[in-house]
Amino acid sequence: MLSLVRAREAAVDDLRRKRQVISSLLLKHDRAYSGKTTWGAMHVRWLQEQSFAYPAQQVVLQEMVLAERHARERLGRIEAAIAELLPNWSLAPVVEALQALRGIRLVTAATIMVEAGDLGRFETARQFMGYLGLVPGERSTGNTVRRLGITKAGNGRLRRALVESAWTYRHPLRTGKLKHYVLEKLPAAVKDIAWKAQTRLCARYRALASRGKQLTVAVTAVAHELAGFVWAIGREVKSV
C-alpha cells in the first residue's frame, strides 16, 4: 500500500504541474476562463475550444491539454487500485473507521495509516501530535517561556494530509449522504468519536476566527486537535 500511496502523491504533483503550465500559457495570452469551477468538464471543453493565430501555439496548447488528461487518468487509475487492494491490507479496518471523520475519505485515510502505521504504538494523543510536528515549539530565556508556531519536525506527508482535511471544519456542522453511508457500517464508539470531533472542531475554528486569527493559523490549530481524534479512532479499532 505504501508504494501505491506514494505513487498517487507523485501523480498529484505531476497533474498540478501540468495544470500550472497550461494556466501560465493562457495567462500569457490574456485568456481567462469565466466559469466557476476550473478543471471540470466545462473548463476542459473551453480549453479545447481555444484557438491561436500561430499554428505552433495551437500545437503547444493541444499537447498540454492532452498531457493534463493523461495525468488525470493516471491519477484515477492509481486511486482505483488503492480502493481495490485496500481490503486485503492489515490496516484496512482502521482506514475504514477513519472515514467517519469529516474531511477524511478513503485516500486520505489510507495515506494517514501508511505514514503512521499502527496508532497503538503512540501511548497518548500528544505523542502522536508530536510525531506529526503539530505541537507548538517554545523558546525559554531565564524565567520567560515564549510559545512558537508548530515544530513541523515530524512526518510532513501525514501533517499535510491532516491540515488539508482540517479545512472542511470551516463550514457548519453537517453529515452528507456519502458520510452517512460510511457511518452505517461502523461501531457506535467510532460514530461517537466522529461526531464529537465535528462539533468540537467546527466550534474551535469559529472561536479562533472570531478572535481574528489568520485562516492558516486557525486551520493548523484544528488539524492539531483532529490528530487527537484520529489517534482515538486508531486505538478503538484494531487492525487485522
Automatic annotation (TrEMBL):
NCBIfam families: transpos_IS110. One of its GO terms (molecular function) is DNA binding. One of its GO terms (biological process) is DNA transposition. This is IS110 family transposase. Residues 96-169 form the Transposase IS116/IS110/IS902 C-terminal domain. Transmembrane segments: none annotated. It comes from Roseicella frigidaeris. Signal peptide: none annotated. InterPro entries: Transpos_IS110 (IPR047650), Transposase_20 (IPR003346).
